[in-house]
Design brief:
The chain is an alpha/beta fold. The protein folds into three domains: 3-246, Glutamine Phosphoribosylpyrophosphate, subunit 1, domain 1 (4-Layer Sandwich); 256-445, Rossmann fold; 452-603, Rossmann fold, CATH 3.40.50. The chain has an eight-stranded antiparallel β-sheet, covered by helices on one side. The chain has a seven-stranded antiparallel β-sheet with strand order 5-6-7-8-12-13-14, covered by helices on one side. The protein has a five-stranded parallel β-sheet with strand order 19-18-20-21-22, sandwiched between helices. A hairpin with a 4-residue loop joins strand 2 and strand 3. Helix 4 (126-141) crosses helix 5 and helix 11 (308-325) packs parallel to helix 15. Bound molecules: fructose -6-phosphate (F6R). Fructose -6-phosphate binds next to helix 11 and helix 18. Fructose -6-phosphate is lined by residues 307-310, 354-356, 359, 362, 406-407, 491, 495, 611-612.
Amino acid sequence: MCGIVGYIGEKDAYPIILKGLKRLEYRGYDSAGVAIYNGNEIEVCKTQGKVSTLEEKAAREISRVGTFGIGHTRWATHGEPNDINSHPHVSNNGELVIIHNGIIENYGSLKTELKKRGYTFYSDTDTEVLVNLIEDVQKNEGVKLGKAVQIALNQVVGAYAIAVIDKKKPNEIVVAKLGSPLAIGIGENEYFIASDASPFIEYTNKSIYLEDGEMGIIRLGREVRLRKIIDDKPIVPYVQELQLNLEQIEKGGFDHFMIKEIYEQPEVIIDTYRGRLLAKEGIVRLGGLEDHIEKFLNAQRIIIVACGTSWHAGLVAEYIFEELSRIPVEVEYASEFRYRNPIITEKDVVIAISQSGETADTLAAIKLAKSKGALVFGVCNVVGSSISRESHAGSYTHAGPEIGVASTKAFTTQITVLTMIGLRLAQAKGTISKSEFMRCLSELEMIPEKVEIALKTEDKIKEIAAVFMNAKNFLYLGRGYNFPVALEGALKLKEISYIHAEGYPAAEMKHGPIALIDEQMPVVVIAVESEHYDKVVSNIQEIKARKGKIIAVVSEGDTTVGEMADYVMEVPKTPEVLTPLVTTIPLQLLAYHIAVMLGRNVDQPRNLAKSVTVE
Ligand code: F6R
């Protein structure tokens, strides 16, 4: 995720763009930049850091005068956050300037081709490739900017919301969208463009939201023209009157960032496997892994270090890796690992999982592992973060910024990456049959749709939340792949609602926790179709016999548990290895709604911080 803004009209563009970028910082904040036409040339200023850093730099370096310009706040995907990789990017002839939110998957092959034609690249970004491709089309075909953008985009595979300006046409912005959002604000003799309406809501409430596969030519003094990118078919713009206020827009119309992020999961899971998982072709490839695959295959064990929710993702990975690739796995709390003089050798591979990439204990754990000669592989969300830099190699999750303190989309995207690693290792080791491998790839590709279906049960979950919101304790039970999900469900509930909750392996209940069960005790049991389904059914019976209240997560159409449980939350049927990606969803929603009903500060629960940079 990145934020993009543009302005063309009669007012000073820079203050409008700068304020807009500050509002879009929730979409990314590792670097920022602007390009303003000063009546003569386009002045570009960009920097690593937040929009406030850009503001200081721009005050020193550019005139900031002009009524036409674009700006960007970045969440790095290709190339670490630094000044050069920041947007806007300028084409080799210095005439075209672009801002981009998304990922150009085939940028590697396009770049090779453009290099052969004499283009030079200064950054590591996919975006710089696109702007030079547009320049190349303009040059070779002799077409105007809009047409050149269209021809170039038809060669591109990936996702984008872009805005391109041309020094020779200082009254026009060309925009296009596929997969990433883009809104056009229509004012009095002025136009705005932005990733959402927050940068322009104080100037106009009239907006056009581009649909996927559409592009627009925005020229001062005439109406916006929209076309289909693929076949140039004209589209009649639909102008909406916005009813939302600023805060609602930043949260995408949701009440809290947490629920917005819960709903983003189908999209960010796709972002995470995009370009890495090609189910039909039977390919799963993660750049960082391929370079070190031999080390993984020959590892005597994989040690996973992480904290909190990321540690739960690590536990899921333990089940996946051992089952699929038969490599021994140990999962450690980073804080314990670093202080207990662990035995680590060069034959070990250490995987560090972290959303922020800044968690102090995880960082210290990987430094320790490195000092003992192990290969360290990071699974982080924040590009260029300390853990990603400290690791020898790694794979990013592409969850975008997670603002809600309680981790949701980071967890499911971590599991997505870890599942891909498990499948790739199994394929390379030959521990999975071809047919099972192919089935897992296509099932993984279908997970976003299934998450979408699971999200549709929100109303039912709200009713369950209303029944149990005043409970003092909760128990969460699961087996196998869903034991870590039970831990995660309990953590979600306790951290945002302040209700005491414990997660347990279902069979372990009778070794102690069963003493807690009475008619006051809600027990959330993950009882989806699995190898151990019958065992879970027995555990449910044990709880029923002690009058506990059962809230069961079941596979669609389940009647056995359905008849025994007091309440059920259905999720689509999924191969067992992938179930955590769907069973997590109702547990996130349950925790969220209980916390909301209790009037808790859901996005910033007491005593917690998003990134734990102290021990
Ligand atoms: C829980 C939560 C925390 C984090 C933990 C690790 O919702 O967010 O438990 O998972 O602090 O943080 P990262 O993943 O940034 O290392």
